[in-house]
Fold each of these.
Amino acid sequence: MAQRNTWQRERVREALSDARGFVSAQSLHATLRDDNTGIGLATVYRALAGLAAQGEADSLQSPEGEALYRACSSTGHHHHLICRSCGLTVEIEATDVEQWAQRTAERHGFRDAEHVVDIFGLCANCAAARDAQRDAH
Ligand SMILES: [Zn+2]
Ligand SMILES: [Zn+2]
Ligand SMILES: [Zn+2]
């Protein structure tokens, strides 16, 4: 029974790898709908949550509070720089952040501390495009 939806999950996994950066379940569902896969939104949500739980996808919250997913190339702990305009995503290591988080948790007597740090901004291309647009006005 558990194997029944495997092809759907594989299809969601493929669509996620093809995506350029972090995507929401809705936009992934729209892509799959354009391909006439017949996969429902609820299935996309379930598949994404499953991939994230198994460490095959990264998940994070957009500044608007929406859950976003991405098939990341690194499996270890890492952070992201995300363009809020085009979705371009850069995976980054942040040694300073690791040390700061560790120290801060210890100072307050916390153990097994985890953290989520992602940076949203405008990538160089989008910033240049915006500047060009502003200059034209
Ligand atoms: Zn990642
Ligand atoms: Zn951009
Ligand atoms: Zn970290």
Note: Residues 75-137 form a domain with the Dna Ligase; domain 1 fold (CATH 3.30.1490.190).
Amino acid sequence: MADLTSNLAGIKSPNPFWVASGPPANTAYQAHRAFEAGWGGLVWKTIGDPTPNVASRYSGLTIGSRRMAGFNNIELISDRSPEANFRELAEVKRRWPDRPVIASLMVDTRERWHEFVNRAIDTGVDGIELNFGCPHGMCERGMGSVVGQDPAAIETITSWALEAASVPVLVKLTPNVTDIVVAARSVRRAGAQAISLINTVRSITNVNLDTFTPEPDVGGKSSHGGYAGPAVKPIALQMVHACAADPEVGLPLSGVGGVATWRDAAEFLALGAANVQVCTAIMHHGFGIVEHLIDGLSAYLDSKGFASLRDLEGRAVPNVTDWSRLDLNAKRVARIDHDTCIHCNLCYVACEDGAYQCIDLVDPAPHGLPPARVADRPVPLVREADCVGCNLCSIVCPVDGCIEMVPIETDRSALSWEQYQTGLAAGTISQIPPQP
Ligand SMILES: Cc1cc2nc3c(=O)[nH]c(=O)nc-3n(C[C@H](O)[C@H](O)[C@H](O)COP(=O)(O)O)c2cc1C
Ligand code: SF4
Ligand code: SF4
């Protein structure tokens, strides 16, 4: 069985699944329950000067039958006293010496950072996470995402924490920036040991069309919140990759944002994360999901013949490149499996109105195709010569595997836009890029 132990900047955990800073990591009671269920580590709900919360504070986006596909919150950092938080952190560390516990902190002045880092370290925590990501409430007070949006502030405040820290310091970044790599490089310059990303994405999930107030409704008003859950995974994956691929960042990464299944976790690891953190999926389904995460990841590693997480970490990083380096001459076409097709014709409509009009509805018999399930109904057939291989039909098709995107050999050699431009300038190019 593959070795699931993970190592983030020297912080070792029995598996790569950590509870992220948030409501499930608010008390010792919850931490005990998380570790009993099998979570590998936990980042405590952010501790700072206690701050009141509003009611209500969450809203969700349901897509089809999937509730909480996106999850928005306007909750702030811990509303409990630092004394209670630090006391319980120490209690959890005493009971679970083999599980890393990280104190997430957010305060304002240099003196307060020194004080809070020291108090956290006295509890026996394995690391400190600096919350530079909260995009609501705290940023209006000069903390959270306003720090993560200002590279100079990231560098200064990280260095304040490092002045007092004797355990690894993780900096948790906000995705609400133009280029995450700029923020990540300033974490590196400051000398922190690792980066966690992402915190939540600024959002308004919906508007009540009777009251005209978005949810969550706080006495008739609302405020933008932070978006999390499955909907943000693509944003988080891109940012993890961007940091993993940048040689100037060069720091271990903890991947956060939309992890709900072992596949999500494996994708984060493949794109360069050393572990993952989970918040929304626990709020939705409870700590018990870790069993499925561990079993699924373990079975996947075994099926690939990977001995440990190290064999997976970063494996997909080199396969993401700039668009200008992609091969313009690589060709793929859509091919329909007529035995599994249910003749819903969604692919036809999508290609006809949203793509390149190269799926025909044909009488099956003359083409040697099986008849439609409904008598006399035409069936879809791709005109492969005209298909540009955009993928749309295979994405809309409701039958898994029914439309395959098949690579096609051509007589054109590989040619990227970058090579095309260089060749044009040098007068050595004889090909032109393919046109639809
Ligand atoms: C209700 C709620 C409260 C959160 N509170 C914190 C917090 O106190 N500190 C922090 O660093 N992140 C906080 N987060 C952000 C999460 O740690 C995480 O970065 C984000 O939710 C994305 O992960 P997910 O999709 O697994 O939820 C909170 C998230 C939610 C949903
Ligand atoms: S891949 Fe795109 S162009 Fe080709 S058949 Fe499908 S929708 Fe049409
Ligand atoms: S979308 Fe899929 S199932 Fe529906 S007609 Fe097209 S190939 Fe068949």
Note: The two ends are 49 Å apart (CA to CA).
